[in-house]
Structure formats: C-alpha cells, structure tokens
Fold this protein.
Amino acid sequence: MIPFIDLKAQYRAYKNEIDKAISEVIDSSSFIGGRALNDFEENLAKYVNVKHAIGASSGTSALLLALMALGIKKGDEVIVPSFTFIATAEMVSLIGATPVFADISLDDYNICVDSIKHLITPKTKAIIAVSIFGQMPDLFALAKFCKDKHIFLIEDGAQSFGAEANGVKSCSICDISTTSFFPSKPLGAYGDGGAIFTNDDNLANLIRIYLNHGQIERYKHKFIGINGRLDSLQAAILGVKLKYLDSEIKMRNEIAKIYDENLPKSCIPRVKSGFKSAYAQYSIRVKNRASVIDYLNKCGIPTAIHYPLGLHAQEAFSDLARVSLKNTEILTNEILSLPMSAFLAQNHQREIISVLNKIIEG
Ligand SMILES: *Cc1c(COP(=O)(O)O)cnc(C)c1O
C-alpha cells in the first residue's frame, strides 16, 4: 500500500536531530514549559511574523481559547463554514454560543464575503475563516468586512500552517489565528499539539492565563480556564520540523503541480493568484467517487474523504435551524483526497496518476 502521508520517511530524514531534541527534554526533566517550549514559541512567532505565538494542547483547544479570550458567550453567534472539520464549530457550541453555518465558494472551497453577508445579525460576534486544505481564503477582504461590521475575525489555520497570500503567512492576518500540530497536518507533532497567534498584547495575556486554569499567580485563579498547554517534548520535536517546513511546502507544491498537469482540468483544485497553499490535502472533484475509491483501493492506493457531510447536516448540530448549503452539498458528494506529502515517491505518484486516469470522471 502506498502511504497516504509518509511520516516514516519524514522521520528518517530528520531522525538524528529529532532524537537529540527528545533526549535533551528527557535529560532536563522539564516536561511542561521550560526552554524547549519558550524557544519553539519564539521561533513560531518569527516564522509567522506575529508578536505572540502561544503553544496549545491541540488545534481544538487553540480554537476554544481564542473564543474564550474574545469573550464569546451564550447568546452570541459565530459564523463558520459548514465545509470543515467539526472542531471549528464544535468549540463555538461548547462555550454556549451558536454556530451559524456559511456556504463556501467552489473556487477555493473557503468562505468569502459574499457567502457570509446575509448571515450577519446583531448577535454576530465573530467569523471563523478556515483555510481549507492549506489555502487561505481572501482574509484581507474578510478582515476589512469584519472591521466595518465591528466583529472579530479568527483564522482556523489548522490545515494551512506555512501557507502564504501575497507573501503574508497564514496565521498572521486575523485578530486571532489558530493552528493544529496533529501528526498529519503540514507541521505535525508526534502526538497532539496546536498554537494560537495574535498581535494583541491583551489577548495574548488572557490566552496564557486561560490555558493554565485561569491562574494569575501560583494557585490564584482569576478565571475559569482549562489545561490547554503544549508539552515540551512536542515543542522540541516541532522545533526541529519547523526548520524544514518551507522546504517541505516547496516539495508539496511540486507534487501538486505534477498532479495538476496530469489529471483532468475539471477535477483539480484551484489556487488563487498570489496565494501559496500548504497542501495539507490534495483533493480532487470526481463525479463517480465511490467507484474511484474502490478501484484505487484495489490497486493499493489509499484515499480519504474530507468531508463526507457538511457540519450543517451533522446530527451533533441537529438542534440548530436546518439550512441548505448548495456548494457544500455538491462538494461533500464529489471531493476526494489523494496521497500527498513532501515525501511522496515519484514512482508512487506516477502510479496513482496512471490508475486514476483509467477510472476518473471529472
Ligand atoms: C485538524 C483540524 C482541527 C483540530 O485540530 P486538532 O489538533 O486535531 O484538535 C481544527 N480545525 C480544522 C480545520 C482541522 O483540520
């Protein structure tokens, strides 16, 4: 079986450095906080070009902390795309606010100003824009729209760490941005992890308090918070991988280009001019998805569906008013993710393309 994401090849490439970073943390016995975490947060902030980067225990807790810091609460509405992983909307519900599901554009599979305009109400407090599959939405246009409406903009950059728009990095544009270091994301840990980014000193300070049980001094708790910390072993591993992220994203873009050039034009993903995708996924649109999956699987080629159902149609959100979202419904029926990683072997990719071209109906 061809690996969907080749994490073993990646480990082999950096093994000496990663093993050394791990044993340094173990030798130091600083498992929570300490130098490994401080260094990593500093390097993250520099990489993204924001004032504050704060490690978190996962992309999910990063989203929760962002909403807490912005004071989102019961009765508030937060606009989120329906075409995303559940965590984006789940954390809105978890803090008691109401997710309002927006449709997406079929150009980049992201929300855009046109898809959210009609959803704004006096209760709208924020928009969470997801950078799906590794490509940012037009966050500049969304940021301007939110500023005019006096609402917050959060980027869920779980899939887009390292991506760019006009040379500006993902996770640097919005009031608060979050990312995930789940192992299969563009920058993946060896377990769970995430981070939160902001240029606002106040928000950064609040996030650091909330992620440590609302504690302002040892055992003095000003707020109800959570344990949302990134642990030092993960920070040390991520610190090594961060150094290679740009070169890996370059490799992913080269692999994407080969898919682009060898698959039917009607099914390949589009990247907006001036944008660089981190290609967390390389996802195509196919009309005969079930038979494509079946045939590829028989040929030893794994695939994945991101995502088979819009969040607006999930049972977990059945208490919300039902909406119909045309583009999301089209895409959830056609989308199919192909093997993608910086270490996808050339001969494997050739085989995937050749098998696909025998069965695909774009
Ligand atoms: C992966 C992902 C998350 C959640 O990240 P975890 O680290 O798994 O908690 C949130 N949003 C999106 C869009 C994701 O892809």
Remarks:
- Residues 58-60, 84-85, 87-88, 130, 156, 158-159, 180, 182, 192, 194 surround pyridoxal-5'-phosphate (CB under 6 Å).
- The chain has a mean pLDDT of 97.
- The radius of gyration is 20 Å.
